[in-house]
Amino acid sequence: MTPKLAEQLAAAMADRAGWCTLEKATKLVELVLSLQATTVVELGVWMGASAIPLALALESRHVGRLFAIDAWSAPASIAGQDEEVHRKWWGEKVGALGHQRAFEMFLRRLHRHGVSPARCRVIRQSTSLADIPAQIDLLHHDANHGPQAVADIERWAPAIRPGGVLVLDDLDWAGGHVTRARDRAAELGFVELYTLGTGCVMQRFARMGT
After folding, report:
1. Domain that holds residue 68
2. Strand arrangement of the beta sheet that strand 65-69 belongs to
3. What was the pLDDT predicted at 208?
4. Is residue 45, in this structure, part of any structural domain at all?
5. Is the dihedral of CA 169, 138, 185, 27 positive or negative?
6. How far apart are CA 32 and CA 56, in angstroms?
7. What pLDDT is stored for residue 92 in this prediction?
8. How far is Cα 46 from Cα 51, in angstroms, rounded to an integer?
9. Chunked in runs of 10, what are the mean pLDDT values of the chain (210 residues)?
């Protein structure tokens, strides 16, 4: 990572715009650089705590694009949540207005941190409907942690190229769906490399299973 990119990353993380730690953001940037990624996908963006670092890594190389995909919708956030506290937080405390504000904040942060439209395509759509790129170098999943997490892996992971990387967040989330998503990725030919925060990093080595 260049000194300029490190400075940009520190500035972005100073916004405190989500739940991504500096450690995780740094690792995501390093993955983009080491993979020489040109197609990066994030499912579940919120205010861009992890998306902005991914986009900055692409900007530093002047190549590639981040597909930032999120419905920014209370119903989409609530769906499949096993614990009432999570349903109430997303549906009542955050609500429709909070989701809209998060979306608008993400757009402002992209501009503030110098991410060009060429490097980030913002897609306000559910992960079950958004178009999938032909080939993905890095997929970061931090979208709905209910049963949709497993469906997302089954739908999106086959597009990750051999040698490409899948990053999952919140393996310990209530209901065990994210853990099952990890297990499904293993069935599809991904090998867990190491833990990262509350999640893990997996790499595709084998041909996709069924």
Report:
1. 3-204
2. 120-123, 65-69, 39-43, 136-141, 160-168, 199-204, 190-196
3. 53
4. yes
5. negative
6. 10
7. 86
8. 9
9. 95 92 97 98 97 98 97 91 85 91 97 96 97 98 95 98 97 94 97 96 75
Instruction: For the beta carbon of residue 130, count every other beta carbon within 10 angstroms.
Output: 18
CA-nearest of 140, 175, 154 to 49 is: 140
Q: What is the CATH number of the domain that holds 37?
A: 3.40.50.150
| Dist. CA 210–CA 89, nearest whole Å | 36
Element (H, E) at 97: helix 95-112
- If you search the block for the tokens 């499912």, which residue do you land on? 43
Give residues with Cβ within 8 angstroms of 129, minimum separation 6. Answer: none
Tokens standing for residue 5: 């990119």
85 assigned to some structural domain: yes
Residue 149 within any structural domain of the chain = yes
Say how many C-beta atoms besides its own lie within 10 A of residue 165's C-beta: 24
Number of structural domains found in the chain? 1
**Residue 179 structure tokens:** 């853990």
Asked if 137 and 161 count as a contact pair (C-beta separation under 8 A), the reply is: yes
Q: Is residue 209 part of a domain?
A: no
